[in-house]
Amino acid sequence: MFIPRNLDTRAEDLKAIQSKELQKFETFATEFSNNLKILQNKNPGDTAEQLFVDLLKNCQLKIHSKEYQFTIFIVSDGTIFNIFKYYWKNDWFECYYSFIWAIFKFEFKIPYDDRKLFIANMVQKYFKFKFD
Length: 132
Prior knowledge:
Layout: H1 7-39, H2 47-55, E1 59-63, E2 71-76, E3 82-87, E4 92-95, H3 97-106, H4 112-127
Antiparallel strand pairs: 1-2, 2-3, 3-4
């Protein structure tokens, strides 16, 4: 016969799990922010890579804890214009078309698959992400 645990104990367990998850996210966000600061001081020389770095020079990391819990935004000049968005819980990384994707499409005429690979490589290199 199944006997349910005390609801107070279950609520405490849930709070403990959420607290650990939040600590992991905060650690990740701090590391992500540090990587952004390091990137902003780079001068790689390669034209496409230099443009990628230059696009992120005046950006900052934003976290909207209530609306988009466990989501990191990289925004341009402190505005609401998002360049990248990372959903930490789902491990999903988004690149915004008009700011990053289109620039490499039209400025460098990089084909779709190469552009996708280039941006993934830049994100891996500077933010220490691993993509499958």
